[in-house]
Amino acid sequence: MKALLFSVVLLVAVLSCSGQRVADITCGVDGSLGSDFQEWEGEFFPNISYIKYEGPASHNPLAYKYYNAEELIFGKKMKDWLRFSVAFWHTFRGDGGDPFGSPTKRWPWDDGSNSLTVAVRRMRANFEFLKKLGVEKWCFHDRDIAPEGSTLEESNANLDYIVSVAKKLQEGTNIRPLWGTAQLFKHPRYMHGAATSPDVRVYAYAAAQVKKAIEVTKLLGGENYVFWGGREGYQTLLNTDLKKELDHMATFLRSAAEYKKKIGFEGTLLLEPKPQEPTKHQYDWDAATTMGFLKNYGLSDDYKLNLECNHATLSGHSCHHELETARIYGMLGSVDANTGDAQTGWDTDQFLTDVSEATLIMLSVIKNGGLAPGGFNFDAKLRRESVDVEDLFIAHISGMDTIARGLRNAAKLLEEGRLTKLVEDRYSSFNSPLGKTIEEGKVGFEELEKISLEAEEPPITSGKQELAEMIFYSYV
Ligand code: XUL
Ligand code: CO
C-alpha cells in the first residue's frame, strides 16, 4: 500500500514537472528540473552558427556589417552603448496570426500549445538564440514564458517552474533579463483595466500578479521592471471616472515602488507610454503626459520611462522627440526599438531599418551618456509572411546593424560638432549680459519693457533649417 502511494506521488510529481500542468508548487523552485528539461534533443537552430562581425563589405545575411560588439566608440564598447535585448513575446510567441488570419508560423519545437513542455523548449530556444546572436539581454511578460493556470496559485507555480529553467540556463553566462513585466491586458478579467479597473477585485489580482512578476525579475537578476498599461485607459468618458482611475493607477504604482524597496530589488521601474491601442485613450499617452502624471502624484523619483518608437509615432511625435523630452528631464530609462509604417495607422512593431531615424535616436542616447541600466529591446516582430527560422536571425541582425550604424553616425556628427555649433550659434545672444540676467531669472517684465523701448527692432535672422538638414544627412 505504502509502495503504491509512493508511486502515485512520484507519478504526480513527474507529470507535474514534465506534463501539461504544474499542480505541485515545489516543482522546480529548488532548482531541480523535471525530466522534460532535456526532452528536446539537439539544437533548436542547427543550421545557424554564431553570428560574427564581417564589416560593411559583407553580403552575408547572417553576419553583422556595422555592429562590432567590442569596438570602442567614445571610449565605450558598442555592446555597452547598445545593450540589445530580445523580446520573448514576439520572437518565441509571435505566430503571425492577425485579426483577419490564422497563425502562419510554427517553429519546429513549438506545437502551438500552452503546455509546460513546450514552454521549456521555448526557453531553451531563447537561450540558444541569444548566444548565437551574441546578445546578453532579453525581456518577458510573465504569461509569455509560462502558461496561465486555472487559479492564481497554479499560474504562480507554472511561472516558478519556467523561471527555474531560465535560471539554470543563465548559469555561467552573462545573459540576464533587461526587464520583466506582468501581462495585464490579455485575460478577460482585465478588459476594463487592471490598476484602473472599476472592480476592486481586479485591482487586487493585478497587484498580486505584479508582485510575483517583480519577484521573478529580481530572482533572474533583471535590471529593470516595466509597466505598459495595455488596458489602462478608456473607451468612452461617458462611463468613466477619470479622476478615480488616475488616482488608482498612482496608488498602484506607489505600492509597486514600495514593494520593490521592501524586497531589495534594485532594478529601475519604467513606465511605457502609448497613446491608444488597445484602448481609445491610454493614460500614459506620451513622454510628456506620463512625466506630468508622475510629477503630479509625487512618483518622479521612483520611475523612469521606457520609450517605444512606434508608440511615439502613434502619438504624433518622432521617436527623437520622445527621447529628447525624457532626456532633458533625466527620465530616459530604456528604449523599445522598433518602427511603424508611414502608411499604416497602428502599432506594426517592425524592426527598425531607417538609418536616419537610428542616427537621431543615438544622438539622444549619446547625449544621455548611454541607457544603462536600460537598453534597446527589440519590441519587434517578423511580418506575417516571414516564416523561416532564419528570418528571426536576419530581422535582429538588421535591427542591430541599423542602430549600430546610427551610433557610428551620431558619434561622428557630435565629434565634428558642425550641428552642435549651428544650434549654439542660434542661441548665442543669450550669452550677452542681458541673456544671462534673463536665464538667471534676475530681470522682470518691467525692466525688459524699458530695455525694449530704448533698443532697436530685433534683427530678422535665419533658422538655417536647410543647412542643418544638409549637415545631418551628410553623416547618414
Ligand atoms: C505593446 C507593447 C508591449 C510592452 C510590454 O504595444 O509595446 O509589448 O512593451 O508590455
Ligand atoms: Co513595447
Automatic annotation (TrEMBL):
UniProt record similarity statement: Belongs to the xylose isomerase family.
Residues in the signal sequence: 1-19
Keyword Cytoplasm: yes
E.C. number(s) listed in UniProt: 5.3.1.5
Keywords: Carbohydrate metabolism, Cytoplasm, Isomerase, Metal-binding, Signal, Xylose metabolism
Name of the protein in its database record: Xylose isomerase
Domain Xylose isomerase-like TIM barrel: 187-321
Predominant cellular place of this UniProt entry's protein: cytoplasm
Domain of life where this protein originates: Eukaryota
